[in-house]
Amino acid sequence: MPARSSIALRRAPWGLPALVVGVLALPLFTNRTFGYDWPDHLWLVWQQAQSIAQMGRPSYFLQAYQGVYQPFFAFYGGTFYAVTGAVADLIGGHPTVAYCAAIIAAFAGAYVGWTWLALQAGVRGWRAQIPGLLYVTAPYIITTPFGRGDVPESIGTCAIPLVAASGLALLRAERVRPLPAAALVLSAAWFTACHNITSLWGTTFLALTAGVLLIAVGRRRVRPRRILEVLGLAALGVAINAWFLFPTIAYSGRTAIAHGGVGAFQFDAWQLVFDPFRSQPETSTAGILNTQMPVLAFVWALVVLAIAWRRMPMPWRRFAAGMVLIVVALLALILTNMSIVPRPWSQIQFPYRAQTYVALGVCAMVLAAVAAIPFLTSRLLRSTALGALVVIAATSFGQAIHQQWRQPSQLASRRLVFQPENKHPPSWYSQFDYADISMPVVPFGAVVGIPGVTITGGNGESILVVPTHGHSDINTVTFPSPGARPIATNVYGGPYLVKVTGVRAIARTPSSELVIEPLAPKGQQAKVTFSTAHTVPVVLGVATTLAALAVCLLLAAWAIGRAVRGRQFSRLAQRERGGVPG
To answer: Residue 308: CB partners within 8 Å, gap ≥ 6?
Structure first.
C-alpha cells in the first residue's frame, strides 16, 4: 500500500493539465459566441466545410451572397479552415463541434509543449506544470480566442511551444526518433497553417530564442548536421501549407488589407500593459480585451533569478539573460506603437498582438527561474519562492476563468452564424479585405447595364451577378453581349486567382468588383466561365503540398515498419535465449 500511495502521489501532478484545460474549455460548451471575430471564424469553417462536401477538396474562395470569388482562403488560414472544415464534414456536418475541438486541442498542445520543455530542462513533479499553466492562463492568450475571437491566431500561436519542445528534443537526442520528429512536422505544419502574421512573428521569436540557446550552451555542443535535420523536418511541415502560402507570398500585396496601417494604440498604454488586475481601457468597443503581460510571473522570475544568479550554472544565466532582453525589447516595441518596426513585421496591425511573444518569453523566464530554485541559498528562500509561485499560478488561473466568463457574447445564439443563401452572419464586418486592388479603376458610371440581366448595386452601378451553384468554383453565366463595353460583376478576386473565359478581365470598380469586357459581338450570346486560375504559384503550391504529404506518409510507413521489425527481432532474440517459450 505505501508503494502504491507513493506512485499515486508522483502521478498526481499529471492531473493538473486535464483540470486546467478542462476548466478553460467549459465556456465552449455553452451557446455563447464570445468576442467579435469568434462567430465569423466559425462561419468561415462552415463555408469551407460546404466547399469540401460539394467539391471533395478545399476552395480558395468565399462564395457568399454579398460577393463571390473572394480569395479569402488563399490569404488567411487556408489549411486551418480546410482541416477543421474537413473534420466538420467527416463527423456529419457539425462545424461548431470541430471548431471548439480545435480550440481545446490548441490549448492542450500549448500546455504539453511547455511541460515537455520543462522536463527537458530537468524540472520534475508539479513544478514542470507551472510554465504551461501560466501560458494558457496569461491575459492575452485568453483574450485572443475569447475576447478578440481571433481563433486562427490563437491556434497558431499555441503551436509554438510544441514546435520548440519537439525541436529541442531532437537536437538533444543521440538520433532522430520517430515520435519527436512527427511532433515537429505536425506542430510546424499547424503553426504555419493558421495566421500569416503569426507565422512571421512566431518564426522570428523562435529564431531569436534558438540564438539565445546557442549562446547559452556554446557552439561546441551544437551538431550542424542535426540542426539541418531539424530544420528539414520543420520545413517539411511548413511545405504542407504551400497550397495557400505560395499564392499568399506571390499575390497578397495586391489585396486591400495588405495596405492597412497599425492602430488600436489605446491598448498599449503602460498602465494597461503592467496592470496585474487585467483591466481594460474605457474606450474599448471590441468586447473585453486584456492586453497585459503576465506581470506577477514576470516579477517572480526576475526576483528568483536575481537571488540565485551567482550560484546558477553559466548556461542558465545566459539563457535567462537572453530571454529577459527579448521580453524587454518586445515591451519597448509595444509601448512605442511599433514605430521602428520594418515591413513586413509592421503588418502586425495591432501592436498588442506582440503580447503573445511577451507571454512566451515570460514563461521561458519562469522555466529558468524554476530550474534555479535548487540554487537558492536557504530552505526558507526555496519554500517562499515555491509558495509564491503556487499563489501566482492559482491567481492567474482564477483570473483567466473570470476573464472568460465576463466576456459578452457577440451574437445571442450560435444559430445566427448559419445564415441561409451563404449570407454573412450579423457579426460580419470585414467586407472584402482580400479583394483585388491592383487592376485599374473604372468609374461606376462607366459600366453598362444589360436589361433583365444586371442588377443595381449599392453605389448605383449595374452588376452582373455570377451564380455559384452552391460552393462550386467553376461557374458559367450567359447574357446578351453589349459588345466591347465594361460590365461590373460581383466577383472580387483578381485574374491571378480567378480565371475568366469568354471575356477579358480589364479593370475593377472603386469598390473592387471585377470589370469584364465581352469578346462576343453585340447582340450575340456571351458565355462566361469563372474558375480557379492555374497560375505558377497556385500550381507549384498545390504540387508542393501533395509532395510534402507523400513524403510524410512514406516516412511514417518507414518508421512503423522499422518499429515492427525491431520488435520482431527483439522477440526472436528472447526466444533464442530461452526468455520466451516457443
So the answer is: 369, 372, 373, 375, 376
Rounded to 5°, angle at Cα 535 from 530 and 536: 170
pTM to 2 decimal places:
0.94
Cβ partners under 8 Å of residue 335, min gap 6: 268, 270, 273
Four-way CATH pick for 444-533: 1.10.287, 2.60.40, 1.20.120, 1.20.1250: 2.60.40
What is the average pLDDT across 309-324?
97
What is the structure's pLDDT at 580? 46
Q: How far apart are CA 17 and CA 35, in angstroms?
A: 25
9-18, 233-242, 260-269, 372-381: least confidently modelled range:
9-18
Q: What is the CA radius of gyration of the chain?
A: 27
More confident residue, 91 or 222: 91
Mean pLDDT of the 335-342 span:
93
Contacts of 215 (CB under 8 A, 6+ apart): 318, 322
What H or E segment, with its residue span, contains residue 392? helix 379-405
What is the chain's length?
A: 582
| DSSP H or E stretch at residue 525 | strand 525-532
Rounded CA separation 513/463 (Å): 9
Rounded Cα gap, residues 165 and 20, in angstroms: 20
Residue 244, all three cell numbers:
495557400
